[in-house]
Amino acid sequence: MSLNKLTIKEVQAGLRDKSFSSVELTQACLQRIRENNHHLNAFITISEELAIASAKKADKLLAENKAWPLTGVPFAVKDAICTAGILSTGSSKILGNYTPPFDATVIKKIRSQGAVLIGKNNCDAFGHGASNENSMFGPVHNPHDLSKVAGGSSGGSAAAVADNMCTFAIAEDTGGSIRQPSSFCGIVGLRPSYGRNSRFGIMPMASSFDTVGPMTKTVEDMAVVMQVIAGQDSLDATTVPDSVPDYFSELNKDIKGLRVGVPKEYFETEGMDKEVRQIVQQQIKELEKQGAKIIDVSLPLTKYAIAAYYVLVPSEVSSNFGRLDGVRYGVRSEAENLFDLYAKSRSIGFPEEVKRRILIGTYALSAGYYDAYYKKAQQVRTLIRRDFDRVFSGVDVLITPTSPFPAFGLGEKASDPIALYLADVFVSPASNAGIPGISVPAGNTKEGLPVGVQIMGPRLSEGLVMRVANKIIKK
Amino acid sequence: MSLTIKDVQKIAQLARVELTPEEEKRHALTISTVLEFVKTLNELDTTDVEPTAQVTGLEDITREDVVRECDNKKGLLEQMPSVSGDLLKVPAVFSDSEDVI
User: Hey, are the CB atoms on B41 and A366 less than 8 Å from each other?
Assistant: First the structure.
């Protein structure tokens, strides 16, 4: 078996019984990238030299029996996350030359275990998109069908894991950016509760929504990575002090008597693919066979989540992106005066969708419109949270499709922002509420495209959602 | 709510983004569509509903107010587009000034 295809659990076993070395495993991943990246465009930067050096160090640790869970394991990182000494552009031109002098906290934790960072993944610029077509480095292609999108915004990370170019990836989910591409590419992706993992070193998009999470081949691997990265961080004041449970022990618990809610709104939406509905309904029956109690529920606010999201997120974006002005770091345009320096650097440095969101946010926050747009959307966000609170008083978790349809064609929704925004209709509600959601492969359409199911739970119930996700067996 | 080209120019100026005439046209059209779409929020009665600004419930998270040394000054300086010694170089802020630092 090719080493690059192994899961973290398999890699751990192989490295410890000396069946192969981390250098051999890293070489296998790099070889796969060389073979396939020109088809997929999943990587923007490949840090080959550094990867081999890290792998050699990891092999030394392994030889001395000083290994941690992720020692010697090759991983990739979304380009909107800062990695010390490795180009981090956020898939934009304005940071086209930016090499951070520091690691994001989650990356620091992983690298300090001796994991092998092999490169940076393409994404929609700064996470703005649901198809990875808003990257200034070109779109990512879906490994299951090159004419389809990989999903977004973390499309490069999803394609890289699905195509076995790395053992796992770290990405960021604001409104579905981990879960939706995981569903489109047939891998496991977790958006943790807001505040569970540190956001320090993530290029901020919408600070009250942004989360960092792993993308893996199995739910078991998800538990391994979460165990390493979760927890409070003094550099991110929004991380919660709650202790991190033992995720791995959760996985093997059964689901007998567990109350699984099926929200009807997630099965009735317009434009829903029939095959997706069937595949998810079949998985619900399987959970019932394993002893789960299936309960029909209603989340009537579901359809308003995208509308609230597209007021609140652009508003936070317009404020956050003030820092990207060509003054202190990144690419600076030549200009006669300060105003032009800002305006030209931002004009050249951002793709159209980023500009659109900055403009929408600037408008929504401007005098006279604040109450009608921003405050109204914040109030609706409260109603969405109450909707979930009410439902979670009667069920333990919720099961839904991750996306109403499988991966769509490249260019298919590119000229219609609303059509693309609506691709996140089932992932945006959890983002508004700050609750965890995991996408796990459930089956394939007749065309061979992956379909994911999403398990959502109350805040800080990552262990529980992983336990249920672990019971989903791909058909 | 329909945005005119003039509206877009005004917002773009506030946001410090230079747009081409084609971009102005496209943004006027697409942003108007987005504003129309988000109007669906008005179907909901939000009288006396508290707005949500954050979801953790954490309050007053503070740290000691002490000066800490930057552990990678050189790394930060290397990322600056233009420097003069250990200082960041920017164009003159006032148009009648010839100072560059």
Answer: no
